[in-house]
Structure to design on (397 residues):
């Protein structure tokens, strides 16, 4: 099977779906790789590096799409809703398409892919199971975002993060409060700790208390009955819960120099947890980094992709954060993509069967393929997506 990698066309996107180092691993498993000239350039991977690892570099986008049996994208469908439309005529019947597709925000874009006859797989739909962890781009990209958010906060804060005892006096360490201790939040805690800050965190899932403490953070107790929903994700709570949470966070936020918010509820708008009144209570010079900006933001004053300064408090609402660390973000995506593609190869019925010859097999029984498969034979086939599309068009669910 020939895997194609084209230059990402989403505005500002610097990542690439496969890095050169993954090419020999793919070849060993029977794949060939074709890459559009310049596709890895912005992530730090020149064409020569791909060639040195055994990929074929092609001059034009059209050639890559024409040659590839599988197109590997960082962003496709709903994750590249405007510029991605230009590629629609390039897809052909039966081609396999893999990438982050943001299907629930833009189900119409998935329907467009379906109309091209491709078998499209959405990487965000990978289930939260141990086996699927190695293919989970949401986790790998959340790691990048959590790290980056702390560096931005440190850069903006007019204070040191660590404590210093110097001849010029003692410097108190910065206080950092992380809201939401999922993958991004935990990485933010670890990064802020490494920089020497005093770190505390809160999550509505009480199970994360131990994880926060194991990283050297303090779990902020709030007398709230939060909870865990399906697959280890947070449940959506009612407005009364969020009102009480805001009430309890008021003092905590005011006592911190930096607040990093990562609170998300899958498929829903992010809850508003940091209000304008809380921002007012923070000391001038404080910094908020709102990693939920893409989903509406956890802070009332966040403006996506803008720097807002209110009463001396700086609020950052960055989007597409992983693209700001494109080298390692691409390396991580490549590993996720590699594992996902290899999972499309047939598996021996019996693990001890040494004579099994791997073949590309989308029809095998496999929970990961089933969970991520969005379009097939001209139709959208993913049940949850079909529901969303039916609701959008007013038809039967
Ligand atoms: P996420 O991006 O959906 O949300 C970020 C965090 O915000 C979560 O921890 C969530 O509980 C929290 N949150 C939601 N509402 C909140 C509120 N009102 N106040 C405070 N916090 C709030 O979550 P995530 O980073 O994807 O991780 C969720 C869990 O899933 C974690 O325990 C993670 O370790 C686990 N996980 C498992 C797998 C796997 O098993 N394959 C893969 C990835 C993540």
């Amino acid at each position: 099977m020939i895997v194609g990698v084209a230059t990402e066309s989403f505005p500002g996107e610097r990542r690439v779906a496969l890095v050169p180092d993954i090419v020999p691993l793919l070849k060993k498993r029977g794949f060939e790789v074709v890459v559009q000239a310049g596709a890895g350039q912005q992530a730090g991977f020149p064409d020569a590096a791909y060639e040195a690892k055994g990929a074929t570099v092609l001059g034009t986008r059209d050639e890559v799409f024409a040659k590839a049996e599988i197109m590997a994208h960082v962003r496709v469908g709903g994750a590249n809703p405007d510029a991605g439309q230009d590629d629609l005529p390039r897809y052909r019947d039966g081609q396999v398409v893999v990438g982050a597709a943001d299907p629930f925000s833009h189900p119409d874009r998935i329907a467009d892919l379906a109309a091209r006859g491709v078998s499209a797989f959405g990487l965000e739909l990978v289930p939260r199971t141990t086996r699927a962890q190695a293919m989970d781009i949401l986790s790998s990209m959340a790691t990048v975002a959590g790290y980056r958010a702390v560096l931005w906060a440190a850069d903006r804060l007019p204070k040191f993060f660590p404590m210093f005892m110097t001849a010029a006096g003692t410097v108190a360490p910065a206080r950092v409060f992380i809201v939401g201790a999922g993958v991004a939040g935990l990485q933010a805690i670890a990064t802020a700790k490494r920089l020497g800050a005093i770190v505390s965190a809160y999550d509505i899932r009480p199970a994360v208390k131990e994880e926060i403490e194991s990283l050297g953070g303090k779990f902020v107790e709030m007398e709230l009955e939060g909870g865990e929903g399906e697959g280890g994700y947070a449940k959506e709570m009612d407005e009364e819960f969020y009102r009480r949470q805001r009430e309890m966070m008021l003092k905590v936020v005011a006592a911190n120099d930096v607040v990093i918010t990562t609170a998300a509820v899958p498929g829903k708008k992010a809850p508003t947890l940091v209000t304008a009144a809380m921002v007012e209570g923070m000391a001038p010079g404080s910094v908020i980094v709102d990693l939920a900006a893409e989903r509406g933001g956890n802070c009332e004053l966040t403006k996506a992709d803008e720097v807002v300064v209110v009463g001396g408090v700086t609020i950052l609402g960055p989007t597409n954060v992983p693209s700001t660390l494109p080298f390692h973000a691409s390396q991580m995506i490549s590993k996720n993509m590699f594992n996902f593609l290899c999972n499309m190869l047939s598996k021996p019925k019996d693990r001890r069967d040494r004579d099994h010859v791997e073949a590309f097999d989308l029809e095998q029984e496999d929970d990961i393929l089933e969970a991520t498969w969005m379009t097939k034979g001209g139709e959208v086939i993913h049940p949850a997506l079909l529901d969303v599309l039916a609701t959008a068009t007013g038809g039967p669910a």
Notes: The mean pLDDT is 94. Residues 137-156 form the longest helix (20 residues). Residues 128-129, 132-133, 136, 138-139, 142, 179-185, 202-205, 232-234, 245, 262-266, 271, 273 surround nicotinamide-adenine-dinucleotide (CB under 6 Å). The CA atoms of residues 149 and 289 lie 6 Å apart.
